[in-house]
Amino acid sequence: MSDTIGFLLNDSARLFRRAFNARTRDSGITALQWRLLIYLRRHEGIRQGPLAELIEVEPITLSRMIDRLEEAGLVERRADPSDRRAWLLYLAPGADELLTAMRATTDALNAEATEGLTAAERDQLAALVERVRANLSRRECLKEEEAA
Hints:
The protein is built from six helices and three strands. It has helices spanning 5-23, 31-42, 48-55, 59-71, 95-113, 119-147; strands at residues 46-47, 75-80, 83-91. Strand 2 and strand 3 (83-91) form a beta hairpin. Helix 1 (5-23) packs across helix 5 and helix 3 (48-55) crosses helix 4.
């Protein structure tokens, strides 16, 4: 095999984003906005700074994304009771319907991407990629601790 695992994963992610964006063009939601909404669902009440770190964008970029999603009725900013300068982010009630509808799109895309794999192979692939992610996350945490 001439391609490295990193190259294959990165290139696959790029192709996933492209296919996702093509399928969701009419909805107005990009792959990055989708990722933001998914992370926000998992971490409701998070501040903008930590969310920007999670999705790996600059805080100003996230702020603009939140502005657009707030205008679309998908995200709410609420004052942080412990710090009046900060905002906590929540999904707006209208986001649930969009997330449910978009799930069908992501399920279809995943099915297309794993076409020809058995259920056991899909499970194994997910487990192996999860292990790679965990390995890299652990190393990243160690680097951050060493830098502190």
